[in-house]
Amino acid sequence: MRDRNASRSTPARQLAPLCALLAVLLAVASAALAAGDTGTGTRAPRLTIPAEAGGKCVEDTAFMRRNHMELLKHQRDRTVHEGVRTTQHSLANCVTCHADGQTRRVTGSKDAFCEGCHSYAGVKLDCFECHSDRPKPAVAGAAPGRAPQ
Amino acid sequence: MSEVDRGRRQILAWGAAMAGVVIAPGVTLFDLAHGRPPAERASAKVRWGMLVDANKCASDCNACVVACDTEHALPAAKTATSAQWIRKVELKDMRGGKTRSAPVMCQHCADPPCVDVCPTGASFKRADGIVLVDRHTCIGCRYCMMACPYAARSFVHEPVTGQLPDVPRGKGCVESCTLCVHRIDRDRIPACVEACAATGHKALLFGDLNDPGSEIAQRIAALGAAALRADLKLDPGVRYAGL
Fold first, then answer.
1. Does A92 lie at the interface with B, CB-CB under 8 angstroms?
2. Residue A126 contacts residue A133 (beta carbons within 8 Å)
3. Which residues in chain B belong to E strands, given as ranges?
4. Minimum-distance CB partner of A82 among B5, B42, B184
5. Contact list, A87 vs chain B (CB under 8 Å)
């Protein structure tokens, strides 16, 4: 009786199910890590959409992430009502720098600058229901009346 | 010589002419508000306006309408509901048979009824007299369309694609002629005026109504140009001669 009990409760036999469970957990975790890993060492998916034009944004990146909508709203009222056409905080300026290299758009796919981040963050993006999501052609705006010299 | 160079030379010429009009040392009668820098607000010193000379407008010519459609990416194929910012109107005297043709668009009234009735403040008049719709606050109620005696405004019924960067427009808003505000802000003349000049008719003239020395002010005085529906006393910025 004592022998049978002793054989059942050996440390090896007690640990066997625990080891199996641990192995399964490890496998699941590593698979999840492999799927979600974007090289940043975190399990959460991260967005990496670079600005096509490169260089520096009109304001600090962290500030822009949080406040770009306020800058745009302020600029839009100044432009529509007062005719101020400075480009630093204009939507057209955003689109010029951030349009995708291939599609030349800031919407249209998850890799596009505006739509990518807005869909990631789950925030509705309605600027481009009216505004163009492509940069202004190089000739327009500057001085189309100017003939090539 | 390009259009920009011509414009600059004209401004220089006006400047030289104005320099003579001095009230007191250092105080000139007229201020040159042209060539406004991008960071400067539109000024109430200017009042942009247009002169339509029906004597020069050809009834078979549609260049202003085509230029407007192209400039603002409006649908070229017109349906019953598509937006139209400028249209050609034919007038015929039923006894004499004499016909007259002229474009009609937003008249950019000094006292615009569309602004009076707008419940959200979306219809507004800019400091330099241009009457506009702020689409960010337009709720599409269309009161302004009913108030406008010139039937100048359109409602956008369908989703819009292919907008140009300078001309955002979309479904659910009222819109009308902006006097090509995006061009004026960059010291260019409206697309219809440019197209009319290109055809050689030169029936449209754009300029500053507040400046008595401007070509438009002088020609309005010389031709005795009048407002459409002058009885309404809306003081429109668009004047017609020879109707």
1. yes
2. no
3. 22-24, 27-28, 48-53, 86-92, 99-105, 123-125, 131-133, 154-155, 174-175, 204-208, 238-241
4. B42
5. 38
Residue pair A106/A60 in contact by the 8 Å Cβ criterion: no
Q: Rounded to a whole number, what is the distance in Å from the CA of A62 to chain B's nearest CA?
A: 26
pTM tops 0.90: no
In total, chain B counts a number of residues equal to 243
**Residues paired with B154 in a beta bridge:** B175
- What is the Cα–Cα distance from B217 to B231, expressed in whole angstroms? 21
Distance between CA atoms of residues B206 and B185, nearest Å: 14
pLDDT digits (tens, 9 = 90+) for B209-230: 999 999 999 999 999 999 999 9
Nearest-by-Cβ selection for A86 from B38, B132, B164 = B38
Residues of chain A found within 8 Å of residue B126, distances taken between Cβ atoms? 81-83
Which residue from A minimizes the CA distance to B137? A77
Interface predicted TM-score (ipTM) over 0.90: no
Scanning the structure block, which residue is given the tokens 């290109």? B198
